[in-house]
Amino acid sequence: MNTPTRSAERKGPARVVFDQVTKRYGTSTVAAVDQVSLDFPAGKLVTLLGPSGCGKTTTLRMIAGLEMATSGRILIGDDDVTRLPATARDVSMVFQSYALFPHMTVMENVSYGLKMSGFGKDAMAAKANDVLRQLGLDKFAARYPNELSGGQQQRVAVARAIVLEPRVLLFDEPLSNLDAKLRRYVRQEIRDLQQSLGLTVVYVTHDQEEALAVSDTIVVMNNAVIAQTGTPRELHDLPQTRFVADFIGGANVLPCEVLSAGSKDQPAMVRLGGLRLQTNACEGTAAQRHVAVRPNRVSLQSAGSADTLEATVQKATYVGEQMEYTVQTALGDLFVTSSDTDHPIAAGSPVALGFGVGDVVLLRD
Predict the structure, then answer these.
(1) Which is it for strands 350-355 and 309-318: parallel, antiparallel or unpaired?
(2) Interatomic CA distance for residues 96 and 239, integer angstroms
């Protein structure tokens, strides 16, 4: 994709800007991406997260130049690339399938883009060897892709992408073909590499745990628009909508009544069943009707405890490091986790649910 010449001056990692970008296919009136405005800072890793069909991969492909925007502008650095082909954008992409050439060795795969870009034999070998060393692949240089593990193939795909020193590096679901243990290992490798080289990375995944682990910023997309943007902790602890609360971390969403709207400095007060609770969201309104609370922020207490919500345990499941409970309340069923695996609560037992100050988040919708 990337086509620098031997004399091209490398400009370093670039900021990417979307200005009211819309993408429609053919004559469809339904937008795949609908008036999206985004700012991807230079040298940071930004993840596009969302369910299948939300528009995240289309957004990535528009940065790459593999799809053209129907309207709006796309900038890479100071350059308007909205109508430029993929070969003129100075970006590289790591695909879900890795797309390695099976008949080429690791060295030949990594060197291929350099060869097509006109690098001399010595310069090509020096750059390829340097990247292979950075990624711990130098001892595999003579092997073919089918002689490598899934994680090693992933690293070869990354090496082939970064050897051309792209201004922006794109990842399209890069870990989906790996098993759970290897995914954790490779995602940390990608994060370490991005930070050590200061790369601008746009990363697409539908896996919220993966997004939380690797990102500086997460952009949650739903139905072709942006649902919320923030740091991993902001999105996990302070979701703004029911969709984000449920999609990231599987928060419990419960109906409530807003008792006091709060202000910039004073959190709102809500009624949750028979409880009066202070939320960690300010400036609530009477129109808001739901709160979110994470499963690990609900405390399981003895039945009859003061200032709690009555509940009955329906299911109790041991999953190794924690217990998972489904509990029934007058407000609906809640999912609750507990680190106390030594004293599990049996199904059918009455319990009381406690909520700490700030554990309840008032949602915008």
Answers:
(1) antiparallel
(2) 29
Instruction: Count H helices and E strands in the chain, helices first.
Output: 8, 21
Q: What confidence tens digit (pLDDT) does each residue in 114-146 have?
A: 888 888 888 999 999 999 988 889 999 999 999
Token readout for 205 is: 């995944």
What's the pLDDT at 115?
86
Please name the residue that has the structure tokens 């609750």: 336
Choose among 223, 220, 204, 224: nearest CA to 22: 224
The structure's pTM equals 0.87
| Look-up of token digits 């950075």 | 134
SS (H, E, C) 212-229: HHHCCEEEEEECCEEEEE
Residue with tokens 């400036």: 283
Instruction: Return the closest-CA partner of residue 43 out of 229, 220, 219, 197.
Output: 197
Angle, helices 180-197/150-162, rounded to nearest 10 degrees: 20
- Token pair recorded at residue 30: 């339904």
Other Cβ atoms within 10 Å of 142 Cβ, number: 10
Grade residue 8 by pLDDT with cuts at 50, 70 and 90: very low
Cα–Cα separations (whole angstroms), residue 72 to 35, 36, 37, 223, 341: 8, 9, 9, 18, 53
pLDDT digits (tens, 9 = 90+) for 231-269: 999 999 889 899 999 999 889 999 988 888 776 677 888
Give the count of beta carbons closer than 10 Å to the beta carbon of residue 192: 11
**Residue matched to tokens 């001056």:** 9
Q: Is 145 helix (H, G, I), strand (E, B) or coil?
A: helix
Beta-bridge mates of residue 191: none
Could you give the angle at the alpha carbon of 324 between the alpha carbons of 322 and 326, nearest 5°? 165
Alpha carbon of residue 21 to chain centroid: 20
Burial of 19: CB neighbours in 10 Å, binned 0-12, 13-18, 19+ = middle
CA distance 64 to 82: 10
What local confidence, expressed as pLDDT, does residue 359 receive?
87
